Amino acid sequence: GKLQAKGKEIKEYDQIFGMQLRYFENSVTFVQRYKITGKTYNVKGYLEYGACNDTGCMPPTSVEFSYKGNGPADAPEAQEETTDEAAADTTAVAAAVPGDSASVDTAAVASDGNLWKPVINELKAFQDGGNASHSLWYILVMGFVGGLLAVLMPCIWPIIPMTVSFFLKRNKDKKKGIRDAITYGISIIVIYVLLGFLITLISGGNGLNSLSTNAVFNIIIFLVLVVFAVSFFGWFELELPSKWTNSVDNKASATSGLVSIFLMAFTLVLVSFSCTAPIIGLLLAEFSTSGNIAAPAVGMLGFSVALALPFTLFAMFPAWLKSAPKSGSWMNTLKVTLGFVELAFSLKFLSVADLAYGWHILDRETFLALWIAIFFLLGLYLIGKLKFQSDVVMGESKPMPVPCVMMGLVSFAFAIYMVPGLWGAPCKAVGAFAPPINTQDFNLNTNEIKPKYTSYEEGMAAAAAQGKPVLIDFTGFGCVNCRKMEAAVWTDPRVAEKLNDDYILISLYVDDKQPLAKPIEVTVNGQKRTLRTVGDKWSYLQQSKFGALAQPFYVTLDAEGNPLSRSFSYKEDVDDYLHFLQEGLDNYKKDESK
Predict the structure, then answer these.
(1) Is the full-model pTM beyond 0.85?
(2) Domain 447-593 carries which CATH code?
């Protein structure tokens, strides 16, 4: 009879493959009934299976089995030609393999020792390399820029002269006043860095790594940023309870020494909450989704240093205060401008949730249309054609200054730049924020990447002949996440250009059922395994050479099989994938120049 499955079978339509798929959840038992016609029987075979989760698929794995026993007493003797038939079947399968494929396949491990030499340690060295320090420097600078913007907010800039004067006047000794101002700045830094550590503790070290794709977290961040943006527009003021500020202020007045200065710094943090909270919220959202456990603390270090710097510098050089810009309506203009920026960035986090749940309410063209509208309105505001209630309160009735008009023109130009993106133009400047181009319904820019090589040896030979690095793509015909990467990342024009022009792309399908000319027996983790198909061979290559199993799996190599950069797995991040490709290309050029 037919093979029967006993388990929880699930059937559902898969949009990636465009067909009905069947799979089993938890466990399954397969039953195959045989009719025994001889006095003894000997059943040999192998079971091939695979498993997938949300981030990757394991390659098909085969498990051999053999059963022997006695048949019915009245059964005839088993015929000896059974073995001959099995041998004939094996011969028939080998004969069915094309001659050119057979010649490549039989070179499985012996063709070139260097090409199959394990590079697991070398690859791990790249994984543990300098990417973390590079990203932390970026986060530090990003936090510092955010701190400088916070300094210019209406809640902070006007109180800088008063605070500096307080420290200088309350101490007859000028040096002591400067020391107190420095202590005040250090206290601000300590408070905000502790906030960064608190975010890490709340999320958990491993939790930060999963926040970037957590739909619920991204929806919450989207809503919070929208509230902050509306606050910057002047609809309402974000304020902490006044009793908190009064309580800390009273304690600062009642104490002296370093404790008093620290409490004064804490009072500043509370008083400036309405201006700094939206900026801090946006920064912490970015830091928390970076995947780096130290990111929130490092980011807040940069923010707090920029925030504390004016208090310290003006205390050390009081004459600078005379040339500093006076408080005025320009601060409100900056505040509203940041409101537009917050509103635009909030859509990035909603996009992550939309992609995770497959709602398709914020596809690429919808996202770009909203950004075009936001930056067009920002342009109108900066040239004075759009007013908010806060502008009226601040007495903003005079013409906008020239710098604002110039920035307004830049905003208009940026909005116009994004318009072709509605028809599929790459819009590289917003590629890191917009949804992948495969979410676009109407796309005139079709650019499908098709690998020229599906054989490791042939592709490596081509790389040596053309003098190019290699990108190995371990994939599978049934790998859903492989199709997602190809649709979301490879279709980006920047990625497509590098794959077509700078690399030899070799796609190795670990579920390729084309039989090898001759089965090859290998040892994996102390256990013998028989490679019967081309897919088995590529799966063994991935495991033995790179120490990996799941797909998709990408690795850059030189023509001798040495890794050029870290490996890359399933992650729909175009910019990170571009950095991965560029890192391999840079290292290849560096090695070639030696």
Answers:
(1) no
(2) 3.40.30.10
